[in-house]
Amino acid sequence: MDLAGSLIGNVLEAIAAVLHTVLEIYMWVIIIRALISWVNPDPYNPIVQFLQRVTDPVLYQIRKRLGMGNMGFDFSPIIAILLIMFLQIAVVGSLKDLAIRLH
After folding, report:
1. Residue pLDDT, tens place only, 4-61
2. Which of the two residues, 25 and 72, has the higher pLDDT score?
3. Do 87 and 23 touch, CB atoms closer than 8 A?
4. H/E/C letters for each residue in 1-67?
5. Where are the domains of the chain?
């Protein structure tokens, strides 16, 4: 393979690795937020505020689109984690496969 193909393959592989890491971190942030919500956290705690600021946009969209506003149990973190897992398999996996073909 030529130098350009190898360079593009390396760039795609790096993008896939970074995207995988970002998705993994975000998944753990969602898990931590869900666990903290079980213990009635202090809403003025900076860590709780950070977790809410980072996860609320995604979780709100899931609740809104699936009509989960009045349910007794919030399934949106579970659905968000499943979506992240899907992205890791479909998008990150596809980028890695493409990178391997370009090497």
Report:
1. 778 999 999 999 999 999 999 999 999 999 999 889 899 999 999 999 999 999 999 9
2. 25
3. yes
4. CCHHHHHHHHHHHHHHHHHHHHHHHHHHHHHHHHHHHCCCCCCCCHHHHHHHHHHHHHHHHHHHHHC
5. 3-102
